[in-house]
Structure formats: C-alpha cells, structure tokens
Amino acid sequence: MKKSLESEINNKSAIIAIVGLGYVGLPLTVAFAEAGYKVLGIDVQQARADLVNSGKSYIADVNGERLAKVVANGLIEATTDQSRLKEADAICICVPTPLTKTKDPDLSYVTYEAEQIQETLRPGQLIVLESTTYPGTTKEVILPILLQSGLKEGSDFYLAYSPERVDPNNQKYNIKNTPKVVGGISSTSTKLATLLYSQIADNVVDVSSPETAEMTKVFENVFRSVNIALVNELAQLCEKMGISVWEVIKAASTKPYGYTPFYPGPGIGGHCIPLDPYYLANKARELDFHTRFIELASDINEHMPYHVIERIMDALNSAGKSLKGAKVLVLGVAYKKDIEDIRESPALKLLELLCAKETDVSFNDPYINEVKLTHVALTSTELSSKILSAADCVVIATDHSCYDIKDIAAQAKLVFDTRGVTTEIRSENIHRLGE
Ligand code: SAJ
After folding, report:
1. 218 lines ligand 1 (CB under 6 A)
2. Are 238 and 341 contained in the same domain?
3. Is 274 in the pocket of ligand 1 (CB under 6 A)?
4. For residues 263 and 161, what is the distance between their CA atoms, to the nearest angstrom?
5. Domain at 11, CATH number
6. Looking at the predicted structure, is the pLDDT value of residue 2 above 60?
7. Which candidate, 38, 115, 112, 31, places its Cα nearest to that of 77?
8. Which of 208, 241, 264 is at the close of a domain?
9. Is 307 close to ligand 1, i.e. is its CB under 6 Å away?
C-alpha cells in the first residue's frame, strides 16, 4: 500500500483533505493546490465552505486572487460533508486545540475529527495531526481511535504529527520557507509524511516520534511564554528602581550573542502562547511532575493586565482623577500589532477590568470593529482630535503601525504606554509600563 501512496504523492494524483479551514488550514489548502494536488477542504462551517468554493478568502494571510485561481482550476473543493474523507489519500487535521474554562486541554475538536476519519478509514490513507497539543496526543488519543477500524498503523494506514508553524501576518516566513517538523508512529509514516510536506516546504525535519514533534512545538511556544514573563517581571522591578526597562532591553540587545530581546506588555494573547504552557503542564501533572517554572511564567503574564490597571489608576491619581468615572480610551485591542485577531487579547482583560471599576471606557482599533465584554459590547470609536483630547487617559495597549504616536501624545491629556512606543517622546503626560 505504501508504494501506491508514495507514487500518488510523487505523481501528484494523491487527493489531500485539509480538515479545519482556519488560519492554519486555509493556507495549507492553497499551498498543496498550488503544488498541483486536488485538495478537499473540510470544515464544519458551511459559510467557510461556500466562501472557499467561491474563491473568496476570509483569512488575512491567504491572498484572495491566489485562492480564486486554484479554485477556478478545479484544484480546491470545500465541503462540510465529513463522509468525503474517504476520498482522501492524505488528511491533515488543522482544528483548534483550546483550553476548557479550568485551563485543561480541550481535544474535543481533534477527537471528533479522528472519529470521523475512523468511520471511513481505508488502507493507504495517511493522517497527519497539525494542531498544537501535548506530547502523547497522537499516540495515546488519535491512534486508538483509528485502530478501532481494525486496520493496522504502518501497513494499512499511516499516522504522523507535524506541528503548524503559521505566524499570522509574518511577511517573511511562510509555509514554503519555514522548516516543517514531522514525526510518525511508524518509520513508514514518517517517510510518507516527510514526502508529502516536502512538496510544499523547502526543509522537512523528521524526528523519531510524534511525541518528539509534539514536544518541539510546545517547547517553541513555552520558550516565548517564559521569556516574556521574565521581561514582564523585570519591568515591574524597573518601575520600583526608577530604571527604564525599555532602555535596559535596548542596551542588552547590543550584545551580539547569547541574548534574545523580548518586550514587556499588557499580557499575552493569541491562539498559542497563552495556551501551550497549560497543555504541557497538564500532561506533566499526569506524570507526577510539576512544571513550576512554566506555570509561574503563565501566572506572571496573566497578572500583567491587573498591573497595568494599577498603573493607570496611579497615573490618573497624579492628575487628580480617579478611575471611577474617568474617560479612558484604549488604543488597539488585537492581541498583537497589525493583525485583526483578538483571541485571548490582554486588551480585552483591560477593558473588562476598567468596566468593573466603573470607568467610562472606549476603544479604537482599525482592525477590530466590536468587542463583546461580559456585560457590554463596545464598538471601535473614531480616532479624532476631539475624542483624544476628551479622554482623561489614553492607553496604548496594542501598537498598530498605523497609529501616529507623536500626534496621539500631543493631543492626549495623559497617556499610558504599555508597549514602549513613546520612549522617544519627552513629556510629563506620558507614563510607561516598566518605568
Ligand atoms: N508578546 C509580548 N512580548 C514579546 C512578544 C510577544 O508581550 O516580546 C505578546 C504579544 O503582544 C502577543 C503574545 O505575546 O499578545 C503572543 O505574541 P507572539 O509574538 O508569540 O505571536 P503569536 O501568538 O502569533 O505566536 C506565533 C507563534 N507561531 C506558532 O505557534 C506557529 C510563535 O511560535 C511564533 O514565534 C510567533 O508567532 C512569532 O514569532 O511571531
């Protein structure tokens, strides 16, 4: 069976199914289609399937013209019909792996798809999980579901893990030039998955097991979480010492080796960094191992919105105002600059906390029109001189490139900068995190 799948991949006759047409799945769909494969996009949302079939992109990183071209060439078809999984020779699972309310891994999307695949599993199919998850998921969760078919891994079907490495809005790195890590349950699975991804990625890195590949991805992101937490803690210490953390980071960055700059902020958001530490910590606890350092970092990062609120309160007090009733304008609610993604954004926590303090809060974000908070929905306000000068405090929460920081600082009575974008502006009315 391996021969036929191998030849189908080599001669591009293999049909590839991408399950989950989000910020990971849709770019992957286009990449395989542009490599010459027929791709079946599968999503639970009919609206997404309809948009794909009409060649319309709803993911900022997916160019609409490129999508329309491969759809017009008949290389991409999207559907919500999970039974069509049987048509695919290779299946890439790119569904969300969120956390539950108690910050435990939520693998319900992954197990649902594994069950759908199992129902129509046939000899010759390669299944690859891309969703970020704890080490052991592929072997301990996916494999048992697929084995219920009675088929054997490594001879009938093939199972591997290959972490997504999509960085939203990254203009430099993409699927083609970002090395792809691959680890299969059997060596044949590793070989087939490596062959598949080498059709779209310049560099495929095969590792000895799916757990190694799973750990690689989680480690990459936990590395960021702990380094961001370190600089967030340093920022709070610098405030007490009258030192500018921004100046310290700038000076430390002159070291040409052995140092990587990270920056303090109002907390961390996104679909990866806030979640991945909990995936690893949860698995570690199962093995009676407490990842104290990793969990402490998450605690520090999650405390940042509360620290920022305290600093805003101090800044308003210095101007004779209290938070209650003060007009506070928050600039930027996306989880990082120049993107339209709001998931887990710390700015949302800032808005919630300001509302809880009965502050007259509003926000502006050119990429986000509305945010739904626990008790209220807010719409992005225009950024006019009138609005800026009327605010008692303007909080820079996300430093979108389109913001004219000098102009904002000139018009605002008071600025609280959580991103260090005003360091070149000398003014009494500007307060900064980390100073
Ligand atoms: N953040 C800081 N300080 C920093 C860096 C980030 O506070 O020094 C905050 C951001 O504002 C954001 C959060 O952390 O709220 C996450 O930022 P991020 O730069 O890590 O961006 P993400 O979440 O989009 O992470 C993705 C990840 N990509 C994948 O998981 C495939 C991550 O591995 C990438 O390294 C990261 O993009 C990247 O480098 O941009």
Report:
1. no
2. yes
3. no
4. 32
5. 3.40.50.720
6. no
7. 38
8. 208
9. no
Q: Is the residue at 219 inside a domain?
A: no
Does pLDDT of 265 surpass 80? Answer: yes
Do 250 and 102 sit in the same domain of this protein? no
Contact 18, 164 (CB under 8 A): no
Give the pairing of strands 393-396 and 38-42.
unpaired
Residue 217 lies in a domain: no
Centre of ligand 1 from the C-alpha of residue 273, in Å: 6
Range of the domain at 334: 225-432
Is the pLDDT score of 3 beyond 80? no
pLDDT at 126 over 90: yes
pLDDT at site 232: 98
To test the ligand 1 pocket, which listed residue (218, 225, 336, 339) has its Cβ within 8 A of the most ligand atoms? 336
194 plus 242 within the same structural domain: no
Backbone angles phi, psi at 232, to 5 degrees: -70, -40
Verify whether ligand 1 is closer than 6 Å to residue 400 (CB atom).
Answer: no
Atom of ligand 1 nearest to the CA of 164: 31
Active site residues: 272
245 and 363 assigned to the same domain: yes
Is residue 213 in a domain?
Answer: no
- Rounded Cα distance, 213 and 128, in Å: 12
Atom of ligand 1 nearest to the CA of 165: 31
Q: Could you give the number of structural domains in the chain? A: 2
Which of 23, 61, 273 has most ligand 1 atoms within 8 Å of its beta carbon, as the pocket-test mutant?
A: 273
Is residue 272 lining ligand 1, measured as CB closer than 6 Å? Answer: yes
Q: Closest Cα to residue 180, out of 309, 298, 68, 28?
A: 28
> Which residue owns the Cα nearest ligand 1 atom 3?
263
Asked whether residue 78 is assigned to any structural domain, the reply reads yes
173 CA from centroid of ligand 1 (Å): 14
Does 292 lie in the same domain as 357?
A: yes
pTM: 0.94
Burial class of 241 by CB neighbour count within 10 A (0 to 12, 13 to 18, 19+): exposed
> Would you say residue 132 has pLDDT above 80?
yes
Instruction: Tell me: do 159 and 246 sit in the same domain.
Output: no
Nearest CA to ligand 1 atom 27: 167
- Say if residue 399 is in the same domain as residue 274: yes
Final residue before a domain boundary, out of 146, 181, 208: 208
Residue 169 confidence (pLDDT) above 90: no
Ligand 1 pocket test: pick from 164, 167, 338 the residue with the most ligand atoms within 8 Å of its Cβ: 167
Cβ atoms 109, 97 nearer than 8 A:
yes
Do 101 and 38 lie in a common domain? Answer: yes
Type of residue at 147: L
CA of 270 to the centre of ligand 1 (A): 7
